[in-house]
Specification:
Length: 221
């Protein structure tokens, strides 16, 4: 299972790169996002970032809609766009040039640079890689129905215990998730993978794959 950080994510494309250092799997950063933001925020260049409250830092070049609901700890990087009706619940890092859209909700997650969740998305306890995009209505489901810890599973039977009760999804770089898809807890999407619209996805999807159904995963040519 190619689910390690270096196989999924370009750490040059996030202000949160130091948070991933010394870790093997990207979900290991989820419990540490809060403390990382509170440590990094005060070091940000005051000529580039506003500091409207104790635990919120917003780049001066970012566009934030007036009716967006924002709670910290939070960092919104340069040139990011927060659209009307967005709901940021805290422990979030929105990357440079990223788009967080109308009526979307995010908590305890990292969006890498130029990633996009533009319309009616929920992003919880997740990492969205560089230039990845979740279509309208896409959801990262972050809690199992039985409330047990999340396990990352592969089709060949390899399982990785995460030790996390809440863990949504990891999207590697350049992933495309079709509209109205649900990424079940512990879903990991490899680089350059594509998910058909209205899909229910679970487990590890290899890089350069096209997910059409659980029993129909093609390789990009």
């Amino acid at each position: 299972m190619d689910a390690k950080i270096e196989q999924l994510l370009d750490l040059q494309q996030t202000i949160a790169a130091p948070l991933f250092e010394g870790k093997t799997y990207p979900w290991e950063v989820l419990p540490e996002i809060n403390d990382f933001i509170l440590k990094l925020g005060p070091t940000l260049d005051a000529s580039k970032f506003d500091h409207p409250s104790d635990d919120v830092w917003i780049a001066k070049s970012a566009k934030v809609a007036e009716n967006a609901s924002i709670a910290g700890p939070l960092i919104i990087d340069e040139e990011a766009e927060i659209r009307p009706g967005a709901y940021i619940r805290g422990n979030a890092i929105i990357g440079r040039g990223a788009t967080f859209g109308n009526s979307c909700e995010i908590k305890n997650s990292i969006m890498f640079n130029e990633s996009q969740t533009p319309h009616f998305n929920y992003v919880g306890d997740s990492v969205i890689g560089y230039k990845s995009h979740i279509g309208a209505g896409g959801i990262t489901s972050n809690l199992k129905s039985d409330k047990s810890n999340v396990i990352v599973k592969s089709a060949d039977g390899e399982n990785i215990e995460t030790g996390l009760r809440k863990f949504g999804a990891i999207l590697g770089d350049n992933v495309e998730v079709g509209c109205n898809s649900v990424l079940n807890p512990g879903t990991v999407l490899g680089r350059n993978s594509m998910i058909y619209p209205t899909s229910g996805v679970r487990g590890f999807i290899p890089e350069n794959s096209i997910f059409k159904a659980p029993d129909n995963i093609a390789t990009k040519k």
